[in-house]
Specification:
This protein is an alpha+beta fold. It folds into 2 domains: about 200 residues, 3-Layer(aba) Sandwich (Peroxisomal Thiolase, Chain A, domain 1); about 140 residues, Thiolase/Chalcone synthase (Peroxisomal Thiolase, Chain A, domain 1), CATH 3.40.47.10. Helix content is about 40%, strand content about 25%. It has 11 helices and 13 strands. It has a 9-stranded mixed sheet, with helices on both faces. A two-stranded antiparallel ribbon has the order 2-3. Strands 9-10 form a two-stranded antiparallel ribbon. Helix 2 runs parallel beside helix 7 and helix 4 crosses helix 5. The longest helix has 27 residues. The protein is globular. The chain starts with a strand and ends with a strand.
Length: about 350
């Protein structure tokens, strides 16, 4: 591939303390359940973001899917626009240069949608392409990144990938199910965008742009365990199913996935300078560390993002990459990893 990540932008709604959300919203929602309280306490989340204010969260469990989609249409475009504009500025790129806008989301749909709103607000050229990557879940950023990088390399035009997720719109009715306590303790709202430019292009004006080349993308899907992680459309929004066996499955598959990806480029795991791993939860990160035999601090960026932002579905791995790049370009390859329904693992190899 001949496409480079030249700018990253993020946008976050109101932040809330995890303890405050439990005390003021979810304690009542889960009828004071001690199990749910423990899930909130051990989720690895200290703060997270919600575009749905607390006074609405109390009633959100009873909203119809139509009501939730209406709120998504009202709130997602503005959040996404902030992230895209920040990414364009970081990349020194003007909106009229963009040949493709890709929007990844699994939390809201409608046509005309967020992509059309952004096309008008930025604005994009009338001949700019648009692509929606929908309902893939937490791993969507990486296959979307691969598609956008392919476009940039083939057409030698800059492109934008936006991941915008409003998981707070999908609060489910109170239940004793442990998986729902875990889900409600983890998930958060965010938008993250990246600008990719042709590797040979000299148009990017920002000297601080990270300029990481997208080298390759790989996937591994365990269809036998496809029921371990689900994201179902119901009359009351979207409901996630999460088996406690997911970390074990990820630990089994992540090693072969990364080994194969690196081997295709003559690399070994010890040569990886940074790991941008989707923080699906503390147990997920522990399983990835075990499956890859990582050092204790290799996943610190992922744990910091989980603590400060929660699990923001597809946007999260881009938040982790941004966290890594804040310290400067890594001295070697970067591996991105994310996981979602399927049961699916995706990996991307980046280098300078």
């Amino acid at each position: 591939m001949n496409a480079r990540i030249s700018g990253i932008g993020t946008a976050l709604p109101q932040q809330y303390e995890q303890d405050w959300l439990w005390d003021n919203v979810f304690r009542t929602h889960f009828n004071g359940s001690r199990i749910a309280a423990r899930m909130f306490d051990t989720a690895g989340v200290e703060r997270r973001h919600s575009s749905t204010p607390p006074y609405e969260l109390a009633d959100a469990a009873g909203w119809s899917t139509e009501e939730r989609m209406r709120r998504y249409a009202e709130r997602a475009p503005a959040l996404g626009l902030r992230a895209v504009r920040q990414a364009l500025t970081a990349a020194g790129t003007e909106p009229e240069e963009i040949g493709l806008l890709t929007v990844a989301t699994c939390t809201g749909y409608g046509t005309p949608g967020t992509d059309i709103e952004l096309a008008g607000s930025l604005p994009l050229r009338a001949d700019a392409r648009r692509l929606l990557v929908g309902h893939m879940g937490c791993h969507a950023a990486i296959p979307a990144l691969g598609a956008v990088a392919d476009y940039v390399a083939a057409h030698e035009r800059p492109a934008v990938l936006l991941c915008v997720e409003l998981t707070s719109l999908h609060v489910q009715p109170g239940t004793r199910d442990i998986d729902q306590a875990v889900v409600h303790a983890l998930f958060s709202d965010a938008a993250a965008a990246i600008v990719l430019r042709p590797g040979s292009a000299s148009g990017a004006r920002s000297a601080a742009a990270p300029r990481l080349r997208v080298v390759d993308v790989a996937a591994r899907t365990d269809t036998v365990r496809r029921g371990h992680m689900t994201w179902r459309v119901t009359d009351l929004g979207f409901r996630m199913g999460l088996s406690p066996e997911v970390p074990e499955a990820l630990s089994e598959h992540v090693g072969p996935l990364v080994k194969d990806l690196l081997a295709r480029h003559g690399l070994d795991r010890s040569e990886v300078a940074a790991w941008a791993v989707h923080p699906g939860g503390p147990r997920v990160l522990d399983a990835v560390a075990e499956g890859l035999d990582l050092a204790p601090d290799d996943l610190d960026p992922s744990r910091r993002v989980l603590a400060e932002h929660g699990n923001c579905s597809s946007a999260t791995v881009l938040l982790v990459l941004d966290e890594i790049l804040k310290a400067g370009p890594p001295d070697g390859p970067v591996v991105m990893l994310a996981f979602g329904p399927g049961l699916t693992l995706y990996a991307a190899l980046l280098d300078a």
